[in-house]
Write a structure and sequence with these properties.
With 338 residues, the protein is of the alpha/beta class. 42% of the residues lie in helices and 19% in strands. It has two domains: 5-119 and 305-321, ATPase, nucleotide binding domain (Nucleotidyltransferase, domain 5, 2-Layer Sandwich); 130-300, Nucleotidyltransferase, domain 5, CATH 3.30.420. It is built from nine helices and ten strands. The structure holds 5'-O-[(R)-(carboxyoxy)(hydroxy)phosphoryl]adenosine and zinc ion (ZN). It holds the Pfam family TsaD.
Amino acid sequence: NKSIYILGIESSCDDTSAAVICNGKILSNVVANQEIHTKYGGVVPELASRAHQQNIVPVIQQAIQQANIDKKDLNAIAFTRGPGLMGSLLVGTSFAKSLSLALNIPLIAVNHMQGHVLAHFIDEENQQKPPFPFLCLTISGGHTQIVKITDYFTMEVIGETLDDAVGEAFDKSAKILGLPYPGGPLVDKYAKLGNPLAFKFTKPKMADLNFSFSGLKTGILYFIQKKVKENPNFIEENLNDICASIQYTIVEILFDKLKKAVEKTGINHVAIAGGVSANSEIRKVLKETEHKYGWTTYIPKFEYTTDNAGMIAITGYLKYLDNNFSKDTIIATARLKV
Ligand code: KG4
Ligand code: ZN
């Protein structure tokens, strides 16, 4: 029963993160958020790469220190190969390669979207792991997917967004309301105090298991512009109700499709993953499906929802056990399918 230590490195977007995992248990998971993007209302790729460059050494040092191990104890380095912003991915990829060379240990490339899903296999007390096959609604700032997972490394996207991701729908709605980036968590916060049925927004009519969120965003924009014309204080006076109504509509869109996916596949083990799975209403509604429809649900701990290296480290560990290593000539890829 040898202890296997894997270092995970995540740098696909605007969070620099490093984690150490030992036989499936997280020993450390350090995340440096990049404040810089707030004032631009979104992630500026050039600035993100620079901040990664600046943060990566201290973040990794901190992760190793918190894990209370020595660099020389590490058995492999797992890193996010894609999808994501090229300039951001390059920082983590190059760093991982150099460290694997310096420590003379293998390199393991990880798909970020697989990482979000496999975060469910991190050993945690009171946290059930989903059995195969299961469905996962992976929702983030860049993706909206319903994935069918047959084993750790066999995943099939059975539905996805054809335009904006659900995280973008949250963030862009928040921006229309004058809230800072990323607005998703703020919409969640104000929605708690509002009436979800105060305003009605049109849901898209999409075939199959696919999603569309760009029409909703436009609908919200026109609605707010019209209301503000009538009453310049409309947003301030109704912020909680507006947020609750937007969130209600998004949650309905997601669960309409998730229900369809369960019916179509006959699989009723359902997980959520990705940054938007931190949303309190989504977590609540998913939990309710247990007695409502008899689903078994899997909700990740908060720290493993938004981008973090813990999910990269667990994927690295599973790949390590599978002897699935990468060549030292591997390159980052902005577009990478699950
Ligand atoms: O997975 P993630 O950290 O990064 C990507 O891979 O995109 O997801 C970030 C997204 C952002 O759009 C953010 O607004 C959203 O997750 N998010 C939330 C909540 N927490 C984070 N959206 C709604 N409610 C939340 N509580
Ligand atoms: Zn992500």
